[in-house]
Amino acid sequence: MRDAHTAGPGLAPPRVVRSAPAGAVQARRGYALEVPSEAHRRLAAAWLLLGVAALVGAGLLAVLLVVARTPGLREAMPSADFFRVVLVAHVDLSVLVWFLAFAGVLWTINSGSHALAAGWLALALVACAAAAIAISPFAGTAAPVMSNYIPVLDGPVFLAGLIILGAGVALLVVRGMRQAPPVGTTLDGSAALRFGLNASLVSAAVALIAFGWSWAAIPRSLPAAGYYDILFWGGGHVLQFTWSLLLVVAWLWLADAAGLTLPLSPRVVTLLFGVGLASVFAIPLIYLAFDVGSVEHHRLLTWLMRFGGALAIPPIGIAVAWSLVRQRAGSPAARAPRAALAASLVLFAAGGAIGFLIRGSDVRIPAHYHGAIVGVTIAMMGLAYHLLPRLGLAMPSVRLATLQPWVYGGGQLVHITGLVWSGGYGVQRKVAGSEQVLHGAREVAGMALMGAGGLVAVIGGLLFVVVVLQALASRRCSR
Questions:
Q1: Of 129, 148, 181, which residue sits at a domain end?
Q2: Is the pLDDT of residue 367 over 80?
Q3: In sequence order, what are the residues at sequence separation of 6 or more whose Cβ sits closer than 8 angstroms to the Cβ of residue 119?
Q4: 3-state DSSP call for residue 428?
Q5: Could you tell me which of 457, 364, 353, 354 has the C-alpha nearest to residue 419?
Q6: What is this structure's pTM?
Q7: Do 127 and 189 lie in a common domain?
Q8: Residue 378 belongs to some domain of the structure
Q9: Most buried residue among 41, 224, 315, 325 by CB atoms closer than 10 A?
């Protein structure tokens, strides 16, 4: 790794911390973890690059989606059905594969030194699955099924990729749980983060069990739309707990990188992680009590996510936001994590607020989940910048790493504003082209605003890819 004299205009070099003897108690209270070994760095960096590759594919597909919904440009799309085909692959790459890949980064950092070969095998399986998902819109005809949480292309290439993805994630989670170090009795900031990451592993394991349970219980005679919606409903809800736990881990780690002093002790943070995890253990009870296709099963999972899974997020989010506003940046190295924190908090809060405006099935629904999902994504991107030198790559430029969250987050904020505006006039979700039925200038203006913001967000997303690839190229040149 380059030293501080050759780092250029990058972030401050990582602290060099020697491994403590077995049984030693570390005194640091900061919310951060050290990468334990060179082997861990290589594997974690590979997971990060896989996530970046997924975002590249999703970004390219997003251009087609924005064109399909933008007045004056949407006529260039071959059909509304092609819009849905592309939308399926875009969502699965930009959310499912990206989130899982970044989870692989954090779970690898949090793991022991054994069974690294299993980690590489899990990475290879997920990479093959991502490639299958990316090419599936162009690999023959497959009917798009806009099922909740995991939309599907009902064709052999996509379904094979989804099965391989499940196998890779199962291996990743099993290894992560087997190799997760104990939190210990001394609850400092590092221990609190480990507890949060261990909780996210448990949540991911329960999600996999829910997917398998639903698959075994669903009648095979159901039409594709109903079949896949029921199949992914339970496990998809549990995955939201997983993403929430990882989001809070990212916020805390970024706050530490920004030099913030939080008004929450590690013990309180650990307790909040436990509250966020507790709801996961109600999932098997719901499966035992009600059939997977019943109204009760559907409603209980929705209520559990709405009132149980979100309990840990507001206190920590408010504490981080309060500290961000009250405390100034102490050094240039703090600018990038501060920018990522601010953009993530704003987008996540905007997505949550929009959820209270939803009435019916209009485009306020995608505005809600775009805000929340992009809030999680920006936090992960900001943490990725902080981790780059710690994973053996070069340090990113402070200027680009600070600019990118504002471009991406600002574009997404305009994007969801346009969707909320249009949704108020009844523009429906999951449609494009002539199916949008834009009656007047107000609907057209709202969707045009959506399109402009979406294009800016695509630029911001690609800028993240540029920053990471620059770090990779700089590292190779310095060898």
A1: 181
A2: no
A3: 43, 104, 108, 111, 172, 175
A4: strand
A5: 364
A6: 0.86
A7: no
A8: yes
A9: 41
